[in-house]
Design brief:
mainly beta, Porin, 18-stranded antiparallel beta barrel, 5% helix
């Protein structure tokens, strides 16, 4: 066992004993996963195994050091023999929080979530993504820094100082869901990786309306790529570049009975481009279908992004897209859910189908199935490298 892994295990063993003695919360999940790829990979270095297996675990601890101080820890690890790195882990959160009247202070490895939309949140800027764990960017990595918060009447104001920027984790070599045929060189951060990033966000609840405004100044969390050439102008590697940006954001959520109206808008400024991003959505819940206990949720969203289409701008799959979906909750003893999601690019006519199902099979045991299908993506710069990566995933999870 590596020294770092042993240290994490020791910390969690101590926290587990402390939680038993002091009533804190220590929980986790173990997942066994089977993946099936119907097509051979697009790039020669990628693993050509149609059937792939993986084992993962997530451990979470929430406890109190004293009446005013909390500690929150979340660590993740996965073993995947067919991946480029068969074993990896991440500390997604390791934060101390101090509470005093209307003031909160937190520091360490932070996990922050902004936004109200379902498919993608343009305003959510603080944490880098783990694109190997989830190519859609739903899984985030922790970011080191501190947060100072003031509790307001029906809201809060938060300020973040982030002294170090982490790279987005990208698929390469043996991994599926690669963005390019080329390997990556060391990343470059404008003004240096240790240059301070900062953010402020103010959120309020007013009757049926929730809104937030935010401002971020620091490194972009998604890179653009520049080619490294050999002596005869052949590309040998791509270099990820993280530009310094400024981004203003707005979030709105209006609740009218079972209907939710959502909006996220951003204005981003870089050294060579200023552009607006927008996401609007509707969500409608039908809490009871006829005489059954089934609950149906329908949602639809539209996304626009006005950034330049050149090498200095990170590619986004949500530049002119619609997202439609439905979720059926059976509301049985097994917490069974089914979900169908469709994302269609209106510029390139590409489509991502996403079908999900989850149910409890016994006590803390769950089984989950996911089917991802890419259609007509050959001309879509954000998805064309995934053309052969349609995938079926079956997972069995044990919570404890």
């Amino acid at each position: 066992m590596k020294k770092g892994h042993a240290s994490v295990l020791l910390v969690f063993s101590m926290l587990a004993l402390y939680s038993i003695a002091n009533g804190a919360t220590f929980k986790g999940e173990v997942e066994g996963r089977y993946e099936y790829y119907a097509e051979a990979p697009l790039f020669s270095e990628q693993s050509d195994r149609q059937s792939q297996y993986a084992l993962a675990t997530t451990l979470d601890y929430n406890g109190q050091i004293n009446r005013n101080t909390d500690i929150n820890v979340s660590v993740f690890g996965r073993y995947h023999p067919a991946a480029n790195k068969s074993g990896r882990g991440d500390v997604r959160e390791l934060a101390l929080s101090y509470y005093a009247s209307q003031l909160e202070m937190s520091g360490g490895m932070l996990m922050e979530r902004w936004g109200v939309l379902e498919a993608f949140s343009p305003v959510d800027i603080l944490n880098p993504r783990d694109r190997v764990e989830d190519f859609q960017g739903d899984i985030k990595q922790g970011i080191p820094g501190g947060r100072l918060s003031w509790l307001l009447d029906n809201g809060r104001a938060d300020v973040w100082l982030l002294p170090y920027s982490r790279e987005e984790r990208l698929a390469e070599r043996k991994d599926r869901f690669r963005n390019s045929a080329f390997a990556y060189s060391d990343a470059e951060f404008e003004k240096g990786q240790n240059t301070l990033s900062s953010a402020v966000r103010i959120s309020q609840m007013l009757a049926s309306l929730e809104f937030a405004v935010s401002y971020y100044k620091g490194h972009a969390r998604t890179p653009y790529f520049t080619p490294n050439l050999d002596g005869i102008a052949h590309v040998i590697t791509l270099q990820p570049n993280y530009a310094r940006i400024e981004q203003a954001g707005l979030e709105l959520l209006w609740i009218k009975g079972q209907l939710l109206v959502k909006l996220e808008s951003t204005y981003r400024s870089t050294s060579d481009d200023n552009f607006t991003g927008l996401g609007i959505g509707l969500e409608r819940e039908f809490p009871r279908m006829g005489s059954s206990k089934n609950a149906l949720t329908l949602y639809g969203e539209y996304y626009y992004d006005g950034r330049k289409s050149d090498s200095s701008s990170p590619i986004t799959p949500f530049q002119n897209d619609i997202f439609l979906g439905l979720r059926l909750a059976v509301n049985d003893l097994n917490s069974t859910e089914y979900e169908l999601r469709l994302t269609r690019d209106l510029d390139y006519d590409s489509t991502l189908w996403d079908l999900r199902a989850k149910t409890r099979i016994k006590h803390q045991w769950f089984v989950e199935a996911n089917l991802y299908k890419f259609s007509h993506v050959d001309n879509d710069p954000a998805l064309k490298s995934f053309a052969s990566d349609s995938r079926l995933v079956l997972s069995v999870m044990l919570g404890f």
